[in-house]
Specification:
The protein is 29% helix and 28% strand. With 284 residues, it is of the alpha/beta class.
Length: 284
């Protein structure tokens, strides 16, 4: 299986973001012929006001239905159908009519059928080293379910951005059978330069899974036109913790082949899941 991670520089205009995603996916498909292509976190609307985020959010059709969705949902479904590939749709703002949105991944098969829907579990409420505050929970509610799906014979696990700091979640994905984990992200420049690659490589080594991490890059305006920056450096990492492909600064993509034989060998030679004992020990 060939996997492409697309790196975008989205803003708060959904139509412009869809056009950017279309150009980049088209270029990646033409150049590398991936079996599955993936987009970053909140690629449909990054930044802007809280009211703007609600305006750009979409009501998703019932899972498993053929009912039409919003512009971003239909764009992802259309790419999957027209290119005959799997599409892991990063994440978008989902509304259910309540006072909070959800940061939601939707994945599609080559026939355009929805395969999975995951709502981000861990919300980014932190202060970065330069004093910039982020409060994702002011706008978004948290999901409560681990999600996997099957794509071309590979079991895929779903995660989003800040989830990467919680290893117990990724252990649950491994136990659910995940071989490849997608991590669409909008990592801040401050946290990304110090932690991005280190965290992904650590989770890959711990779970013995492949990781595909498409990310946003560059400047966007948040809230009252406050400039903020995301780190980018979208990457693919193997189960031994090697980064096998990476995007540099700017928009673009990277592609790598997911080799199940590598996964099998790593897990056979170092069966860490079988060796886990500490979680069953009594603390005194």
């Amino acid at each position: 299986m060939r996997v492409s991670v697309v790196q975008m520089n989205p803003g708060h205009d959904k139509a412009e973001n869809i056009a950017q995603a279309s150009r980049l996916i088209g270029a990646a498909v033409a150049a590398d012929r991936p079996d599955i292509v993936s987009l970053p976190e909140v690629w449909t609307c990054l930044g802007g006001s809280r009211a703007g985020k609600f305006e750009q959010a979409e009501v998703l059709p019932p899972p498993g239905s053929n009912e039409p969705g919003g512009p971003a949902y239909e764009f992802l479904r259309g790419v999957a159908r027209s290119q005959r590939i799997h599409v892991h749709g990063g994440s978008m703002a989902e509304t259910d009519g309540g006072e909070r949105l959800f940061n939601t991944t939707v994945a599609f098969g080559p026939d355009g059928q929805e395969l999975a829907r995951y709502r981000k579990i861990h919300l980014f409420d932190i202060v970065t080293p330069d004093g910039t505050g982020f409060r994702e929970s002011a706008t978004y509610g948290a999901g409560d379910a681990i999600v996997t799906y099957q794509a071309g014979g590979v079991k895929v696990g779903c995660a989003i951005c800040y989830d990467i700091r919680f290893p117990e979640m990724f252990l649950e994905l491994r136990r659910a059978g995940a071989e490849l984990i997608f991590l669409p992200s909008a990592f801040t420049l401050q946290t990304g330069k110090d932690h991005w690659e280190t965290l992904i490589r650590a989770r890959a080594i711990e779970t013995q899974c492949w990781f595909a991490a498409p990310a946003t890059w560059g400047r966007h305006l948040d809230g009252g036109s406050e400039p903020r920056f995301t780190f980018g450096h979208s990457l693919l990492c193997d189960p031994w913790g090697h980064v096998v492909a990476k995007v540099s600064d700017g928009v673009g993509w990277a592609t790598a082949r997911i080799d199940p034989a590598v996964t099998e060998r790593v897990r056979r030679d170092m069966p860490v899941l079988e060796h886990r004992v500490l979680e069953h020990r009594r603390v005194v």
